[in-house]
Amino acid sequence: MRNAPEVITLEDLGIVRVRGVDAVRFLQGQLSNDVARLSAAHSILAGYHNPQGRTIAVLRLMQWDAEAGDILAVVPRELAGVVASRLGKFVLRAKVKISDESAGWRVSGLVDGTLASAGRPSLSELPSLLSAQSRGDGAVFVRVGDDPARWLIVSPADAPAPTSGHAVGDPQTWLRLDIAAGQPQVCAATSEEFVAQMLNLDVLNAIAFDKGCYTGQEVIARAHYRGRVKRRMQRFVSRDACQLAPGDSGQLADGRAFKVVLATQLADGRCEFLAVAPLAGGAHDEASATAAAATIVADQVSLPYSLPD
């Protein structure tokens, strides 16, 4: 897709830092994925949910220092303080410190390229599998996409940028790639709107159904084992020019109501978006749109993964 690497500064992403000998054990009781799987070579995607199973935030966890129990969670910057504060209420006697350290870290994306230059990892040294993680040049590199290949990069803000000297990309490019990959994000406008499976977190391996209890686990497990997930995140492209933003509601031409998860404007004014809606061909009663909802004529576009029936 690209012949040269592009580095994209992702200023809308922040960092929640969890440190202490009990960091893994503490997060294990709060997040949907198995935090014990986190390692120096493997990051994990996880949801943080309220007791009703609705997603407060989607986090990308990476290990910064295993010996110190130092874990970094990448979240939207606008939610970092909220997540740190809510998690902090449950620390009690656990030996762990939680803080919003967004100002102290740099979050970037590398798209379809190599960091081959003096002192930097070559393409062969960068993670080649999704969720694989590596360290180099004082930064953490996590593989988060395949088509095109892309990496999430986290480094201290006061350290030299590990990708300096490469072409600078547009943050909208990263957003379009997230949408094309069917990778959800929750922002302030949609926090606590969607149950985990509505965001396809189960399909994206962000939920461990064989781990112990965590906040929201009962609701999420019940939806999984009873197969009652009738609305899921799907990908659409509008036929006409329109503007959509996370949290916007509308109605598709076939009568299905939707709520936007992520959206981006295309060059011709049309909108490509991820939205939670009833699955095509299913009953629409649960999510019938109001008469005032705007009707959007849009074509459904395939995701790079299959949704459960």
Detailed description of the structure:
- 12% of the residues lie in helices and 33% in strands.
- By secondary structure, the protein is mainly β.
- It has two domains: 6-155 and 165-180, 2-Layer Sandwich (Gyrase A, domain 2); 230-309, no CATH class.
- The model is unreliable at 114-119 and 285-289 (pLDDT under 50).
- It starts with 5 loop residues before the first strand and ends in an 8-residue tail after the last strand.
- It is globular, with a radius of gyration of 19 Å.
- The chain has a six-stranded mixed β-sheet with strand order 8-9-10-7-1-11, covered by helices on one side. Strands 16-13-14-15-12-17 form a six-stranded mixed β-sheet.
Summarize the topology.
Blueprint: E1 6-9, E2 13-19, H1 23-28, E3 44-49, E4 55-65, E5 70-76, H2 77-88, E6 97-100, E7 105-111, E8 133-136, E9 139-146, E10 149-156, E11 167-168, H3 171-180, H4 217-226, E12 231-238, E13 249-252, E14 257-265, E15 271-278, E16 295-296, E17 298-301
Question: Which descriptors apply to this entry?
Answer:
six-stranded mixed beta sheet; 4 helices; 17 strands; globular; Gyrase A, domain 2; 309 residues; 12% helix; mainly beta
Brief summary:
This protein is mostly beta strands and 309 residues long. It has four helices and 17 strands.
